[in-house]
Amino acid sequence: MTVPTKPPVSPARDDLHAPVIAWFDAHARDLPWRRAEAGPWGVMVSEFMLQQTPVSRVLPVYEQWMARWPRPAALAAEAPGEAVRAWGRLGYPRRALRLHGAAVAITERHGGDVPTEHAQLLALPGIGEYTAAAVASFAYGQRHAVLDTNVRRVLARAVTGVQYPPGATTAAERKLARALLPEDERTAALWAAASMELGALVCTAKNENCHRCPITDRCAWQLAGKPEHAGPPRKGQTYAGTDRQVRGKLLAVLREAVRPVPQAVLDRVWDEPVQRARALDGLVADGLVEPLPGGLYRLPLT
Q: Does the active-site annotation cover 47?
C-alpha cells in the first residue's frame, strides 16, 4: 500500500506559526467556551451557535443555554421545540434541532460524554467536517485542519496572495491547510485557534488591520501590494423581505406562545399570503414547526 505523503511546506509557511500563536497568547478574547469549565460540550455548543453568527449575539444565548443544559443529557431530555425556543433570534434555527439531535445521540451512544475521536464526532447527526475538526481540536487538543471563513481568509492572503478565498471551501484549500499544520498536536491546536482569531479580529473581510498583524512582513497578499479581488463579485447577504425574515417572524410568535397557536395569529405576522404560506410550509418541512388538527401550530415535541 502506498502511504500518502504530506506536501512539503516552505520555511516561509513554517514561519507563520510562531508569530500568530504568540499574538494569540497576547490578544485572544476571554470567551466562555475557551475556559476549562466549558468542557467539550461547551465547545460543541459554541461551534453550533457561531456558524454565520457574530460572537456578540451568541454570548448571551450561550450563557443561558449552558446554565439550563450544562450536559448533553439535560438537553436530550427536553423536547426539540425547547431547543428552538431557547435559540431565540440567533438565526438559522435548524442548528438548534441539529444540536438537540447531537445531544440525544451523545447520550444514547456515548454515555452522555462528547466523544473524543474525530470519526465519532463526524458520525453524530448535524455535525459536518468543520464542526468535528473544531471540537476535536479546541476541546481535545488534537491535530486537525479547522477551516472556517476566518481561517480561509487568513490563508488566502498570507499564503496564496489573494484578497478573498473562493465562495465555497475547495480541495486545494484543504490540502493547503493540512500542509500548514504543525506536527505537534498541541501546537496544531493552538495554530487552529490562533489563525481563526487573527481572521476574526485583524485580517477581517473589510477594513483589515494590517498594521496590527503579526505576519504582515511575510504576508503574500501584502507583499504583492494587496491586489484587488479578481474573482466573481462578492454578494452580501440580504435579509429584509426574504423568506428567512418571514420564517423568523413566524417562529418568534411560536417561541413566545405557551400553547398551540391558531393559523389566524400567524397570518398577522406577514401581509403577503403566498410568501407567508411558503415560509410556514418550509418550517414544517424542516421539523421546526409541528402542525396540529384544527389549524393550530406549535414548536416540535418529538
A: yes
